[in-house]
């Protein structure tokens, strides 16, 4: 499991945000396009691609892409 | 005898709630941002004394006028709603009288939401195919806004009230092909109005807030967005695959996909999952919102008006139940 691949999958859930905005250190909650709907899509993607089912509460504990990646890794 | 969609019309109630209206009511909430994401700028709301059956009657009257259809031709009425006028009698019986339809016809209600139009087409096709009826009126009508708590900003942004009427006959512009249907009652509680049926007759009066500050109330419409999202993302790609198989078609032979218009973000998520080109994916939500069982006929009507219907058109409905279904239409 590699972070660049994870970032690509994460970025795929956005329609308008430029791909360069997605870095390991990016605080995704500060992105203009971030919303509860994108959160649902991200959680669904994590379930499908990584076999990890995150609860909304777990999702809410992270704000930075690399932390979310670490959370997914820890649950694999 | 093959069955065809011959004509469609729809009706929307007079009152309109704009995003601006919602911003006024919920100034602390980013309505505009959410509304852009879900693709709805206006939704129509039924008047306090206006029911699904009332709207259904209006949609049928529009169908008769717009397409020059004689009411005596109708020999079956199917009414899809989850918001009946009464426990009994069946709304379809009341509507038969109000519409002045013949008395030697069949009429029944069936209770489904976002998958209702597909199921209605499957029932209508069966009636025509077996010769039980020749001109089936399929009416879909819903008033979810009556079930939504006034403070439930999320659902109020998404759902609009409305009704559609479709005539299914031995000829028409769209031949109804093969169906794929699905049901999974494990999802029942994820989209539910608990109170008001026979199991829970009395009001719960348990208005509260969840940890994110959203309204919770067993007396109103409840939707677990996350669970519905996951169900849809799991079920719809398989549904599309099954509809293609049943109709012996490859995905690139489909000229237009018309899905239940749940919300724009969800629809685009599905479109990307299934790898459907943007140009082949029809969205009509902005001025109507999610009208539950009427989103597909409304979208079909609008797509026809825009001359977008040709070749194969794949329809897919999915939601409350869980219940889902899809069919291919061959446009002639």
Structure description:
The complex is a heterodimer of chains A (76) and B (332). With 76 residues, chain A is mainly alpha-helical. Chain A has one domain (3-14, 21-75): Orthogonal Bundle (Non-ribosomal Peptide Synthetase Peptidyl Carrier Protein, Chain A), CATH 1.10.1200. Chain A has helices at 3-11, 36-50, 56-60, 65-75. Chain B is an alpha+beta fold and 332 residues long. Chain B folds into two domains: 4-172, Thiolase/Chalcone synthase (Peroxisomal Thiolase, Chain A, domain 1, 3-Layer(aba) Sandwich); 178-331, Peroxisomal Thiolase, Chain A, domain 1 (3-Layer(aba) Sandwich). Chain B is built from nine helices and 15 strands. Chain B has helices at 19-25, 31-38, 52-67, 91-99, 116-129, 153-158, 225-246, 264-274, 295-305, and strands at 4-11, 15-18, 42-45, 76-80, 106-110, 136-142, 162-169, 174-183, 191-192, 208-209, 215-216, 222-223, 256-259, 312-319, 323-331. In chain B, helix 4 (91-99) links the parallel strand 4 and strand 5. In chain B, helix 3 packs across helix 4 (91-99) and helix 7 (225-246) crosses helix 8 (264-274). Classes of the chains: A mainly alpha (76), B alpha+beta (332). The A-B interface holds A 12-13, 15, 35-38, 40-41, 43-44, 47-48, 56-57 and B 33-34, 37-38, 211, 225-226, 229-230, 233, 263, 265-266, 268-269, 272.
Q: What is shown here, in short?
A:
Chain A is mainly alpha-helical and 76 residues long. Chain A contains 4 helices and no strands.
What key phrases describe this protein's structure?
heterodimer; A: 76 residues; mainly alpha; Non-ribosomal Peptide Synthetase Peptidyl Carrier Protein, Chain A; 4 helices; 0% strand; B: 332 residues; alpha+beta; Peroxisomal Thiolase, Chain A, domain 1; 2 domains; 9-stranded mixed β-sheet; 15 strands; globular
Shape summary of chain B: globular
Total domains of chain B: 2
**Element order of chain A: H for helix, E for strand:** HHHH
Q: What is the top-level CATH class of chain A?
A: Mainly Alpha
Q: With helices defined by DSSP (H or I, 4 residues minimum), what is the helix count of chain B?
A: 9
Structural class by secondary-structure content of chain B? alpha+beta
Number of strands of chain A: 0
How many β strands of chain B by DSSP? 15
């Amino acid at each position: 499991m590699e972070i660049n691949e994870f970032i690509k999958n994460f970025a795929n859930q956005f329609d308008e945000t430029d791909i360069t905005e997605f870095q390991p250190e990016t605080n995704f909650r500060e992105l203009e396009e971030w919303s509860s709907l994108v959160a649902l899509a991200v959680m669904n993607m994590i379930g499908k691609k990584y076999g990890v089912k995150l609860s909304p509460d777990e999702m809410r504990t992270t704000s930075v892409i690399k932390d979310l990646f670490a959370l997914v890794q820890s649950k694999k | 005898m093959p069955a065809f969609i011959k004509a469609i019309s729809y009706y929307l109630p007079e009152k309109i709630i704009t995003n601006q209206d919602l911003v006024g009511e919920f100034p602390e909430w980013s309505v505009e941002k959410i509304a852009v994401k879900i693709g709805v700028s206006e939704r129509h709301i039924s008047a306090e004394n206006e029911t699904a059956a009332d709207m259904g009657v209006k949609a049928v009257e529009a169908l008769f006028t717009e397409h020059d259809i004689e009411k005596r031709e109708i020999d079956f009425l199917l009414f899809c709603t989850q918001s009946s006028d009464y426990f009994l009698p069946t709304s379809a019986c009341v509507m038969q009288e109000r519409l002045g339809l013949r008395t030697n016809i069949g009429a029944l209600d069936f209770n489904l939401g976002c998958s209702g139009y597909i199921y209605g087409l499957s029932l209508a096709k069966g009636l025509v195919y077996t010769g039980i009826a020749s001109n089936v009126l399929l009416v879909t009508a819903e008033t979810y806004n009556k079930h939504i708590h006034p403070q439930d900003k999320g659902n109020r942004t998404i759902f609009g009230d409305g009704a559609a009427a479709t005539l299914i006959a031995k000829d028409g512009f769209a031949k109804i092909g093969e169906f794929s249907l699905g049901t999974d009652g494990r999802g029942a509680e994820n989209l539910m109005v608990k109170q008001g049926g026979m199991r829970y007759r009395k009001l719960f009066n348990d208005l509260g807030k969840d940890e994110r500050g959203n309204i919770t109330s067993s007396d109103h419409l409840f939707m677990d967005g996350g669970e519905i999202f996951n169900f849809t993302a799991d079920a719809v790609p398989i549904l599309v695959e099954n509809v293609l198989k049943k109709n012996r078609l490859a995905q690139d032979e489909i000229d237009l996909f018309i899905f239940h218009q749940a919300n724009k973000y969800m629809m685009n998520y599905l479109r990307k999952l299934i790898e459907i080109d943007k140009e082949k994916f029809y969205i009509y939500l902005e001025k109507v919102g999610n009208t539950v069982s009427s989103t597909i006929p409304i979208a079909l009507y609008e797509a026809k008006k825009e001359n977008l219907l040709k070749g194969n058109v794949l329809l897919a409905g999915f939601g409350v139940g869980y219940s889902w279904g899809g069919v291919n239409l061959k446009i002639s």
